[in-house]
Amino acid sequence: MKKLLLGATALTLCAGFSSAAYAEFTLNILHINDFHSRFDPITNSDSNCGADQDAAGECFGGIARLKTIIDDTRATHADGNSILLSAGDNFQGSLYYTTYKSKVVSDFFNQLGFDVVATGNHEFDDGPEEFLKFIEAAEFPIIGGNFDVSRDANLAGKIKGSIVVEIGGEKIGIIGATAEDTPEIAEVGDVEFHEVTQYVRGAAEALDAAGVNKIILLSHIGYGVDLEVAASVPLIDVIVGGHSHSLLGSMDGAAGPYPTMVTNPDGIEVPVVQANQYGKYLGDIAITWDDDGKVVSAEGAPYLIDASVTGNEDFKAQLADLAGPIEELAATVIGASTAPLEGNREVCRVKECSMGNLLADAILDRTASQGATIAFQNGGGIRASIDEGEITMGEVLTVLPFSNTLATVSISGADVIEALENGVSDIENGAGRFAQVAGVKYSYTLANPAGERISDVLVKGDGDSWVPIDEEATYIVVTNNFVRGGGDGYETFANGDNPYDFGPPLEQVVADYIASQGGTYTPYTDGRITILE
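Above: the chain sequence. Below: its structure as tokens.
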């Protein structure tokens, strides 16, 4: 049975309904977002969950539990109408995806019975070719939105920006939207992205003109942007979102209430929901419309998928079969950590974190003999924490799932500062461009406007000294091939001199670095990033 973490939130948007009107229509929307191929259970810190921990009831999520909770919840709505949605980013994040790519996602999602799935930015990580495989294997519609695939010979005509589904005799319009900066953070090929708000406005108007008066925005643009769209675009009745991995509800650490109500330009309140990440929660929101297509109530809560949920046995067996080829690699012990390595996105995309220091130190150490003195590791490339104790290659690959390799580039000190400014330019939205660093120290002031936040940039001098960066001097910077190529907005690296994408893969660099420390690593932070008031 599922466990309700929160007391159900009931929001009545229109007074005077003592009993259900004849023409009211209620749709129960079940939703996940940012699953990231986390097919196995996870710990409370989102790292891999060992079998012993899972048996002790300490773990959450996992595709087998997700199957159970979806089936059980849909059964409770058997007398009504329900729809199962994913708000994108189902690729990338575990050895299952590294090994089997999109096939493992489509196989399980087909069995879960998704009705509509949005496109996340990570669906382009392996280029349009892998995304096409997902589209062709899926037994459910995958919608796009604010991107144009007409110039891609393979994707052209294969994905729509919005669709209309019929449930309970009612037409429901569903619009897709994907983060505008996807070309900066993924491999989109010839796919062209457009401004979200303008696209959503036009799509909603088109649906309305076609007589569809119940419209859902299924978005992968982030909680903050969802709120902006809700406040500025009429005709949208509910937004089911993703990308920012936001936990909504009344629990500690929540980014906002579930649902978050936003008043649109017509004075109508629009519910916005999201369900955290990695299949740890299942969102469940009941939306009721009157006969005119106006939302009169939004009621629901996210369910925590914890050890009280018994995993589906068939799914467990399927995972066991898939795990065989990857178990040997995943189980290889590369060292140990004397304390937990913090890789949580809420930390590593805002401030110095111990996982960021390990990665930045490791890549700088590997390239110091080539003259590299500064290292950048984008926070978005850090996908998990690692608990105290033995460190396996599987855990490292879960932290670093993108198959990135080492890359160096020569840039000026002024360009280093510009790159640091890029790193802190979108902290408000939890952007993955935040720079974990080595060989450089910096401060930032969030209250300042983007582009004017960085100060006190220091680089290593003689011995243990630190000196102000020389804006005219040239520095060799080491990062990963994605960032070096301009990913996450780091155009200053793409425009630098002597670019060299030489490898080896980051996971091997980390394994070698831990071995060089005697096999035992002690996590630390040392003040290399300072946040100023």
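The CA atoms of residues 43 and 59 lie 5 Å apart.
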